Amino acid sequence: MPRPIAALFSAALLLGTVTLLSACNTVAGAGEDVSSAGHTVTKAADSADH
Predict the structure, then answer these.
(1) What are the Cα distances from residue 20, in Å, to 16, 28, 37, 45?
(2) Nearest Cα to 33, choosing from 17, 48, 20?
(3) pLDDT tens per residue, the chain (50 residues)?
């Protein structure tokens, strides 16, 4: 990977990680976020199935 692309990729990865970590302040909050996303996907799959 050329250096500018690697630097851009690293910066984007760092920004994404910081954003995700600030969105859920605790491990319990992260679990709730993942659970909520799972329920949303399940509901969408069920409604598409019927």
Answers:
(1) 6, 14, 14, 25
(2) 20
(3) 567 888 889 999 998 888 777 766 666 677 888 899 999 999 888 888 66
Sequence-ordered alpha helix ranges (H) in 1-50: 3-23, 27-49
Cβ burial 9-36 (10 Å sphere, 16+ → b, else e): eeeeeeeeeeeeeeeeeeeeeeeeeeee
User: Distances from the Cα of 47 to the Cαs of 3, 14, 17, in angstroms?
Assistant: 46, 36, 32
Where do we find the tokens 């679990």? Answer: 31
Counting every residue, how long is the chain?
Answer: 50
